[in-house]
Amino acid sequence: MSLIRVLHPGFQTTIQDLGRFGFAHLGISASGAADALSLRIGNLLVGNKEGSAALEMTLLGGEFEFKESCVVALTGSDFEPRLNGQSISLWCSHTVPAGGHLQLGATKSGARCYLCVAGGFDVPLTLGSSSTHLLTGLGGLGGRTLKKGDILRVKSPAHPNLKPKTIDDRFVSAFHGEHVVRVTEGIQSHYFTNVELQQFYSSAYTVSEDSNRMGLRFTGPKLAHAHDSEIVTEGTPLGAVQIPKNGEPIVLFVEHQTTGGYPKIANVISADMHFMGQLRPQDSVRFRKISFEEAISLLHEQERFVQSMSRDLME
Fold first, then answer.
1. Which domain holds residue 276?
2. Is the pTM here over 0.90, yes or no?
């Protein structure tokens, strides 16, 4: 087992995996990595199972001291990582020597960077997951963000003699797509007139400073409801695009409330949720409607790509 000391926690650094499922009836959403695709790829680069616990850093990265030698990978957004003062690359594995110092700064691209370590972080499972759910204080390290002086335990790696791994530019270029969010039709889309629907799909929306892991709030053209502004409270899925009374969209995110009473005009497709996890305040996006069949096909395509990458990295 290895130990890592937190010298500086960064802005909002938490332990995350792929989330806990099956507890919506208790008011607990899945949580997990905001950009699950980056977490999965990072874990594959260090020889872990895709869902192993990793660190999620938001907007500003942390500083860490490694007590023992460890293999790591950084994925997601570029936080200008430096190992013992030297710049290192994302999307590949690195060996950190005993006593090594890893420092990350402010983001240069998206919102979140992931630090995956060979073996994965050793934290107790809460309702079957290591993910930190900040809203309820469940999971991770005491259900909270990291703080200075925390000691993180790392499990023994399954592949202790892992060779350095990297991925090709195909994934990196696919990862940084255009700022277009693909959505399917929402269950209350009929609450909006054709004019309002056209406005929603033709307008640019800006990510608000009020956004967090519970929901991404957008500013832009306001949408009026053709019916009463609220509905009978019902279950709310990840990625639902709600239109509250002020007429500006909210995309329910990884720590979303499990029920809600605002009409849902659309739902972000599963294959684009990783992109939502990389949106920063003031980023601009447009929503584009596609069919359910297209959404399923895109998810299958993404999964085939990840599994192909997994096979390549295991060779």
1. 180-305
2. yes
